[in-house]
Structures are given as C-alpha cells and as structure tokens.
Specification:
single chain, 4 helices, 5 strands
Length: 164
C-alpha cells in the first residue's frame, strides 16, 4: 500500500516537472516562483516541493522500506534534490547578465586607440560595457593623430567626445 502511494507521488511529481521543463523550453520562462536572492522563498516553492516529492517518492518506491530509517533517508534524498535545484537556479541566475548601457559621460578618462581619421573627426576603439566599440571623437587641441595612436577621452560635451 505505501509503495503504491509513493509511486503515485513520484509519478505525479515527475510529470509536473516534465511539463514545467517542456513549457519553459518551448514557451519561455513563465514561472515566477524563482527568487533572485535564492533565499528561503526559492527553496520553499512549488518547484522545490515538486523536486522533494520526486526524490523522496522514487527513493521510497525503489527501497520498499517501511521503517523509520527508510523514511529518514527518503526525506534526506528529497532535501538533496531541493538543494541541488536551489544550487542550479543560483548558478543559472549568475549566467544571466543584465546589460546596462554606459552613458557617454562615463567614458571620460578612458583610454582609447585611434582607428581611423577623417579631417577633424576621429574614430576610436574604446571599451564600453566590456566590449570594444568604435566611436566618433574630436581632438580637443586640434592635434593630429595617426592610426594606432593611444590617447584618452578627456571631455564629453553635448554628446560629443573629445580626446587629448
């Protein structure tokens, strides 16, 4: 009797997990019970309960145990499933990188390399948001630069960057 109950719990929890997994793969993340900080709320969630039931249900069905030791090990296996879930969510959250664009004023004082020049206008390569970007600048003192020269952005005024 108890093995039938645990088999039912394991099958239902596994089915819920598979449905959530398929929906998240094909239709995006529509689940909202994942917390950013990975605190107690992300462990005690519907997904946490589902994973606990998967771990404990399958363990109890496979072991066919009815003594207190089997129940204790089943609870421990369920908790391990939940902790693995929490750890994976935490690592997946770290993989997401929010791109916050830098303002032009933040580039003041940053080193750049002359990429091309056209009269008074220069194109420089400068690190913006961790990536090398090409941007238009002007010379502050009408100094002439050659391709490959390294300089610094010293002034940003009215959306125009100046190098020195």
């Amino acid at each position: 009797m108890t093995s039938t109950i645990f088999l039912t719990v394991a099958i239902v929890a596994t089915a819920i997990f598979l449905i959530q997994f398929i929906v998240s793969i094909f239709f995006g993340d529509i689940d909202t019970d994942v917390d950013v900080d990975a605190d107690l709320g992300s462990i005690l969630s519907f997904k946490g309960l589902t994973h606990f039931c998967i771990g404990m249900g399958w363990y109890m069905y496979i072991s066919q145990g009815t003594d207190i030791t089997s129940y204790a090990i089943g609870i421990l296996v369920g908790l391990i499933f939940v902790l693995v879930l929490w750890y994976l969510y935490k690592k997946a959250w770290q993989l997401q990188k929010e791109n916050k664009p830098e303002k032009l004023e933040a580039l003041q004082g940053r080193e750049c390399t002359i990429y091309a020049h056209d009269g008074e206008r220069y194109v420089v390569q400068v690190a913006v948001n961790g990536a090398l970007r090409e941007m238009d600048v002007r010379s502050l003192e009408d100094r002439k630069y050659q391709t490959g020269d390294r300089t610094m952005i010293v002034k940003v005024e009215s959306g125009i960057m100046y190098i020195q």
